[in-house]
Amino acid sequence: xxxxxxxxxxxxxxxxxxxxxxxxxxxxxxxxxxxxxxxxxxxxxxxxxxxxxxxxxxxxxxxxxxxxxxxxxxxxxxxxxxxxxxxxxxxxxxxxxxxxxxxxxxxxxxxxxxxxxxxxxxxxxxxxxxxxxxxxxxxxxxxxxxxxxxxxxxxxxxxxxxxxxxxxxxxxxxxxxxxxxxxxxxxxxxxxxxxxxxxxxxxxxxxxxxxxxxxxxxxxxxxxxxxxxxxxxxxxxxxxxxxxxxxxxxxxxxxxxxxxxxxxxxxxxxxxxxxxxxxxxxxx
Length: 284
Description:
Blueprint: E1 5-9, H1 11-15, E2 20-25, E3 38-43, E4 46-52, H2 67-77, E5 81-90, E6 100-108, H3 134-146, E7 151-158, H4 167-175, E8 180-182, H5 185-194, E9 198-207, H6 220-229, H7 231-241, H8 265-269, H9 273-280
Helix pairs in contact: 2-5
């Protein structure tokens, strides 16, 4: 039986021993090689798959991640519900380092990444007004609240990276009513929607970016330090959240391509066989 729940996260999540009885899977895709092998194991007796987005040794920069291969490999493995964990900088005083934020909305500033499966002979326009699954996100928020851990909902700005923000950029992001800033979630969200997965972004605040006059500007050391401080909280959240996730495919996210594909079935049949089987089968 294939796992239905997947987690994409940083290498730190892999190291805290959250997943038990792991088996590694090497999955090749029509879009190339994912960031690393996919670890399939169990959290609280629920089978899950985990993929470290930067590789287990954190060697892949945000703008160099093969996002299409990552999402496609998870879809190929059977994933229907996807949790994306991310380190973020806070743009709001009340969202303090070591707080958690559930992504609610999204602003994408990236330009170097391919963020669709549908090009080269096939066109689809999926609805993206609400970029994250409301059902999954609400469940995550309530789960964290029940653990008495500080949690917020907010808008995520995705910047290209790998450099952190300038002060001017940080103030602009605040003026847009954005709440946090990161470098990876937007591309994952777009591809997950096209792959008809439910997606929830669980964000760990590590710093105040560089807008806060009373705080030091973000650095790698501050990010790593606060991620380590929150290891136990993240493990508690994931352990509590995973068993609550429904696995009945009733959410609208699982039908995102319905009425979204403009190209004809003949065009679809010209796509690689693997793409037809994994992404397009029910529309052919």
